């Protein structure tokens, strides 16, 4: 299987798990404190269907349930106004809170404020033009001028890192707004007592139905980002060397890379150690299509080759290593009823914590194999905010936040989701090169499939089959069946049953609901298995109740978990409690765990606070047995003493073993790379030192670029901005590249500036999230330069730098007046007349209203054929004569201006008189048909003319017209004699 896949790749270019995490972390922390050289493995063992429930004591050293952000860390905050999603803005964590990009804040609030490098660094106005705004930043004194009044600005309120960041409290004072920041979810809500332009715009758009809450979606045409035969690779490189007392020096190197190859996206990983040699290697080729466009009628969304996460026969089981092929039509980011799987590639030495609604639910420390894998992470009924926090060895802290809502099966009636894999179970592609280090066990060639079918919108069923094609491994086959149903949208019930060939089985039933805004889950798990020694059949049963939620009034998050384990005629109860709160600027968390068969009750608390710009954390662990006994203390201080430099001092002591640990870490992150040093001392192990560095390297056609962020795990974009002098959309000899132009990713608020070659590289774009790419008009020196065409949007994908071009063309302004022609007077300017600009296809591309003096102007008109006209509906409603559009000759433009494009409107000549009104009709066609038939039947009407007047939705027929009343009376009498009902009316004709 591996040989075939290597050839194919060349040619085509982990309820029970949470307990296991706690046990493994306990063992590892205990080993560190006792100075053991060989530390227990943190990797989760593969789940075995016959494994009995663990009765081991729970861990002593619990993890914190809070997320805290050190000063100097860059933030990407999702901004809301009321319930409307505005987008993401850049920020930076400060000692007092956070500072945000002035340009981003001004953009989302619709304040016309521009920023620049020289003084004044920002100017414009706020809410109204007379409320002017000007910010000057000097070395010793900075000031802000609002509505002509100047105020001093504290230097601590200004953070200048490549662009201008202003402290959130200062922004509130300047703009009379309130910024409510949720650091746990990296969200902020803006409110204001005084009306904002933003509020007025939202009100207008809401009235027109053009905006919906949380609907900040890309609008521009999508630029294709197809898989290519070969793209330039992206590399994340990490190296470290370690020195330890009485031990050999050890050097490690790891490379995580990716690029397109043979129309697949390839991801590869290599790791080596100076003492062992090659310690890790992985290769995967994949295709992903959010639109389900893979493999024709199969409508697949995922196709994977190589080292894969194979299909699981049931979502309650954990995944294993495998080499093979996987095909699925699951939605990208899909949830499995009430759980999710989180996995991905990452450099060795990183730590990961997973938070759900502000509470820690899983973690993995010191990852060594270049990937992380969390299977079956539980979700609660209702809203779930899941945050993944990555801690890098160079002091990096990165976050990913996603929101999930659980209230149904996730499938509509008639929907079918499949997942199929053919693979070598338990193997890795390069096992033959890693035999000395690999502990993997192959279980032969395996075929696994799972299907889920939506019977109704509220009921779905699932079936699965795992078959080992090698007869010696048939004992590991599995079959599965289950269902999920939504109970009137108020609860979710799921049941799963898994059976093996020897009749061992697992069944699990889960009920999830919400009570008074708090999530409540109840689950039952029953296992039947054969004891390996006695061959006797055993049964076990686990019942678990989980209550979790938030109490907003107390700023408190909590989780209570009670579990009963019944096995081998023995019953054990487990109780777990997590609670986290904040009191002003002090954060406090506490965890407690107790087991009925364990004499110890174990817990841990932590207190965290910012003091004079430094982050301070103090905590301890304790045991109650039955007396209260503190068995460990720890403290940590971190901060940024200098620009781009982060330092951390930590100390811990095990009070039982009297073992002390102290460490000093410093990291330097200038932008293109990062370096970190660590010096530590342990009473048992002695001194140790570590030096490590990390850099990410990307390639574009014009050369290389580097970053201290990972380029492989997310998408990147190369944007070429140039002046298109001949308006052909192609860069040729007479065109010029445009430097120092800001390019924005509108939905994510990433930005970059073009270099001397007109190239801007935007990094860390979220995968498969469509975003508009636009030029920041405030950064363009020539006010007449505008983007050519409709704009562009992209859907980024990992380990690929997509390239797009934005040609800029010279625009013109068209000015003129609209006047009314009068019979005996000079033309009169008309205000509030709608004037339209049309393209060569006679499509309206812009519309303006004339000012009080009839003046109008169209700005930023692109090159091409255009015409102007008064809006036809305006002419009809006000009884003006119709007119044709006036063609614009752009060759007349001087200094990008076309003047004197005047438009004239007039009403026809009016004559007052009298006519015979006959009858009204619902349509003009009916009126004309009636008149035609009437003239044929009554030849005496041939001497008369007819006309009509429209009144709303009806048309009235008149016969004859005279300026005197008597002739009209005579005609009406004649019409009466032939059977027509008529009446003489005074009318005005044009």
From TrEMBL:
Query: What is the organism field in this record?
Result: Marinomonas aquimarina
Q: Signal peptide position in this chain?
A: 1-18
Q: Which domain of life is it from?
A: Bacteria
Q: Which InterPro entries match?
A: Ig-like_fold
Give the protein's recorded name.
SPOR domain-containing protein
Q: What is the lineage of its organism?
A: Bacteria, Pseudomonadati, Pseudomonadota, Gammaproteobacteria, Oceanospirillales
Which keywords does this chain's UniProt record carry? Signal
């Amino acid at each position: 299987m591996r040989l075939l896949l290597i050839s194919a790749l060349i040619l085509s270019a982990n309820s029970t798990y949470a307990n296991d995490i706690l046990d493994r972390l306990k063992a590892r922390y205990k080993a560190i404190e006792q100075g053991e050289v060989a530390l227990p493995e943190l990797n989760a063992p593969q789940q075995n269907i016959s494994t009995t429930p663990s009765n081991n004591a729970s861990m002593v050293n619990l993890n914190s349930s809070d997320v805290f952000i050190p000063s100097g860390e860059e933030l990407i905050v999702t901004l809301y106004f009321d319930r409307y999603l505005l987008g993401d803005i850049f920020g930076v964590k400060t000692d007092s809170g956070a500072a945000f990009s002035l340009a981003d804040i001004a953009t989302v609030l619709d304040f016309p404020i521009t920023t620049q490098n020289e003084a004044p660094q920002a100017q414009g106005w706020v809410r109204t033009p007379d409320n002017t705004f000007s910010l000057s930043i000097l070395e010793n004194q900075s000031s802000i001028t609002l509505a002509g009044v100047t105020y001093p600005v504290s230097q601590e309120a200004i953070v200048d890192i490549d662009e201008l960041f202003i402290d959130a409290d200062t922004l509130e004072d300047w703009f009379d707004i309130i910024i409510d920041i949720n650091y746990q979810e990296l969200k902020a809500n803006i409110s204001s007592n005084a009306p904002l332009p933003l509020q007025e715009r939202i009100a207008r758009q809401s009235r027109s139905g053009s905006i919906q809450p949380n609907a900040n979606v890309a609008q521009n045409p999508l630029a294709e980002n197809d898989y290519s035969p070969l793209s330039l690779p992206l590399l994340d490189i990490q190296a470290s060397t370690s020195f330890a007392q009485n031990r050999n020096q050890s050097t490690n190197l790891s490379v995580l890379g990716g690029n397109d190859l043979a129309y697949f996206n390839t991801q590869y990983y290599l790791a080596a150690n100076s003492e062992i040699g090659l310690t890790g290697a992985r290769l995967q080729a994949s295709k992903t299509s959010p639109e389900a466009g893979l493999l024709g009628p199969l409508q697949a969304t995922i196709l994977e080759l190589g080292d894969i996460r194979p299909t699981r026969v049931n979502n309650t089981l954990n995944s294993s290593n495998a080499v093979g092929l996987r095909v699925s039509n699951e939605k990208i980011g899909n949830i499995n009823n009430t759980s999710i799987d989180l996995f991905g590639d990452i450099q060795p030495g990183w730590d990961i914590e997973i938070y759900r609604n502000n509470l820690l639910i899983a973690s993995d420390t010191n990852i060594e194999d270049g990937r992380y894998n969390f299977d079956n992470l539980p979700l609660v009924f209702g809203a779930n905010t899941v945050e993944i926090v990555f801690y890098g060895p160079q002091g990096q802290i990165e976050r990913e936040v996603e929101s999930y809502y659980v209230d149904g099966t996730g499938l509509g009636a008639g929907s079918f989701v499949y997942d199929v894999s053919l693979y070598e179970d338990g193997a890795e592609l390069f096992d033959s090169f890693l035999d000395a280090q690999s502990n993997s066990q192959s279980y032969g060639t395996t075929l696994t499939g799972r299907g889920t079918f939506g019977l109704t919108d509220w009921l779905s069923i699932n079936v699965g089959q795992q078959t080992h094609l090698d007869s010696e491994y048939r004992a590991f086959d599995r079959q599965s069946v289950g269902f999920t149903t939504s109970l009137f949208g108020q609860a979710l019930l799921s049941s799963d049953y898994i059976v093996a060939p020897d009749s061992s089985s697992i069944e699990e039933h889960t009920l999830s609901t919400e009570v008074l805004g708090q999530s409540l889950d109840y689950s039952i798990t029953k296992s039947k298995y054969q004891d390996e020694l006695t061959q006797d059949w055993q049964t076990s049963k686990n019942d678990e109740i989980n209550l979790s939620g938030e109490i907003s009034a107390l700023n408190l998050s909590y989780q209570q978990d009670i579990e009963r384990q019944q096995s081998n005629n023995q019953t054990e109860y487990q109780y777990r409690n997590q609670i986290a709160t904040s009191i002003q600027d002090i954060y406090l968390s506490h965890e407690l765990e107790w087991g009925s068969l364990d004499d110890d009750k174990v817990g841990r608390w932590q207190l965290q606070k910012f003091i004079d710009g430094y982050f301070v954390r103090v905590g301890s662990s304790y045991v109650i047995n039955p007396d209260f006994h503190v068995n460990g203390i720890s403290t940590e201080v971190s901060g940024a003493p200098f620009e781009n430099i982060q330092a951390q001092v930590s100390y811990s002591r095990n009070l039982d073993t009297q073992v002390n640990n102290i460490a000093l870490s410093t990291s330097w992150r200038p932008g293109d790379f990062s370096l970190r040093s660590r010096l530590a001392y342990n009473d048992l192990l002695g001194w140790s030192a570590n030096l490590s560095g990390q850099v990410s390297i990307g390639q574009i056609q014009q050369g290389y670029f580097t970053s201290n962020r990972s380029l492989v795990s997310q998408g990147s974009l190369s944007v070429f901005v140039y002046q298109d002098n001949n308006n052909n959309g192609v860069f040729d000899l007479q065109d010029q590249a445009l430097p120092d132009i800001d390019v924005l990713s509108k939905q994510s608020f990433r930005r970059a500036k073009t270099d001397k070659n007109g190239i801007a590289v935007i990094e860390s774009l979220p995968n498969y999230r469509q975003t508009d790419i636009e030029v920041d008009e405030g950064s363009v020196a020539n006010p007449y330069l505008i983007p050519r065409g409709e704009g562009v949007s992209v859907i980024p994908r990992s380990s690929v730098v997509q390239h797009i071009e934005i040609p800029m063309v010279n625009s013109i302004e068209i000015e003129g007046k609209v006047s009314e022609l009068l019979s005996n007077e000079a033309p009169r300017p008309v205000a509030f007349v709608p004037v339209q600009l049309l393209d060569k296809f006679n499509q309206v591309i812009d519309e303006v209203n004339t000012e009080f003096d009839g003046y109008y102007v169209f700005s930023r008109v692109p090159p091409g054929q255009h015409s102007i006209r008064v809006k036809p509906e305006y002419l009809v409603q006000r009884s003006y004569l119709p007119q044709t559009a006036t063609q614009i000759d752009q060759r007349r433009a001087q200094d990008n201006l076309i003047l004197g494009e005047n438009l004239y409107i007039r009403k026809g000549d009016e004559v007052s008189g009298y006519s015979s009104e006959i009858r009204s009709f619902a349509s003009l066609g009916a009126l004309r048909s009636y008149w035609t038939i009437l003239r044929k039947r009554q030849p005496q009407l041939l001497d008369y003319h007819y006309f009509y007047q429209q009144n709303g939705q009806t048309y009235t027929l008149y016969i004859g017209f005279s300026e005197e009343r008597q002739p009209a009376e005579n005609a009406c009498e004649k019409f009466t004699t032939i059977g027509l009902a008529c009446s003489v009316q005074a009318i005005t004709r044009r």
